[in-house]
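REQUEST FORM: STRUCTURE PREDICTION
Request ID: SP-0412
Submitted by: Lab K.M.
Chain count: 1
Length (residues): 506
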Amino acid sequence: MSYGGAIYVAATGTLNITATFSGNTAAKDGGAIAIANGTVNVSGSSFTSNTATLDGGAIAMILTNQNASLTLSGTNTFSGNTAANGNDISLENTAADKTGTLTLNGTTGTLDVYGDSERVSIVDNTSSRVYLKGTVGSLTLNNANADVTLSGALTIANSLTLTQGYLWLGSYNVSFNDYATCSGGSLNSMILINGTGDVIKYFEDAGSFNFQIGTVSGSTKTYTPISITFTSGYFAPGAYLDVRVDAAKNANIPGNTYYLNRYWTVTPSGISSYGANVSATYVATDVSGTESIIKPQRYSGIWNQFGSILNHVITGAVTGFGQFTAFGTIPSPTPTPVPPPPQPTPPPAPIPAPNPINNSYYQSISDIGGSGDFGSDSGSFITSALSMESSVPSNALNSIGDGENGTSVTGGGDGGHEIGAGRGYGMGTRLGGIANGEHGASSSRPSNYLGGIVDGEHAASLREERIFSMNDTALDFSGMSVYDKFEKHIAFKSDTDILLDAFIAV
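STATUS: Completed
RESULT:
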């Protein structure tokens, strides 16, 4: 079926096309299809019109055949609505004065827009395929089950409204004219950067734009928009921003950092001497490391920190663009204190050799030899041969003799008492008895106390105490008179025993 004149469908009329319908509006024809609240049912193989006026009511045209297609080329005007139930609709180089809505309700229908279309709405269909390229005045995505894929570069002249569904860029850019807007945007509806295609926004002067963009990995989509507001700048004719987002760590981030696995690239053209505010949103799963460590960063050959982060949103003022992300240096761990190495245990003090006589321990002492003068017939005594090693048993007197005036003797004699072993004053060996001479007498002091009063005829008193310390070295009594040695109370102070080898009384 073809026509060269006008086909008019009245308000209540119905035009059923069961074959291929072709219309051509060459200058001589001047024909049009006018549908005034009527319905055109296309059940044939195709409906093609070079010039058509579709100004019907709620539904102006319905494509009912599963294999039917509607192709509008040239200058087609429609103010009604067109529904394609599982069929293809192609708008090729159509004029920009369409005010109707194209609706796909089928499961396999394809909408191809080539050229200029005033308004295209993708609403309420199940899983139809929609391909767009060219220029549309306004595009609305409100279909949760069917996405729109670019088959070429797409320009939005007035607005893009994102309610449900996704606009997949692939290898093509979507551009927004100077005063075009992009509204809506959410995890359920966004412009998906899934290839080399970017979002381009033209600016005549300072203004703002919300780039409702995100990424996809497998079946997981991530909504990470960026908003840019110019506060100043010079904008040459045709000035624009080219924007994209990538879900990866920026290759220029240095090592030893916590960072975002996401960055936004903003490339200006024809814009200079500008200032702008930037706001970019990421998600928690983008963070690698500790989020409180990372800071907003801009890379344009070198890294520059700017702005702040709050609730996964990077904000800040900039005077340059580039790549925006966030990272921070991993803090050095606090060193664990290392305890000092254990100090070697000092060797124990040497233990003196045991006394071979009584198995006690003692220190050496030099001989207390010499002579003294305690006066005529003095009942005095001296000791001799006090040493560490002696061949004289401690229970025997080395030499005993009689002296008229108590002077020292070197010969033998008779008498004597045994000298026992024990502890003396502070440490020494106990003097168990006192040898008797002609003028000797026994001591009234305890046997472990050398000193005190000696009783006997012409006895002398040992009145004062003199203490000699014995610390690993022998005491040297040489040069002292017997009086010096025994005029005073002699006591030996040490932690070991002393062996008194012999005692002589005169």
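NOTES: The longest strand covers residues 148-168.
Reviewed by: T.R.
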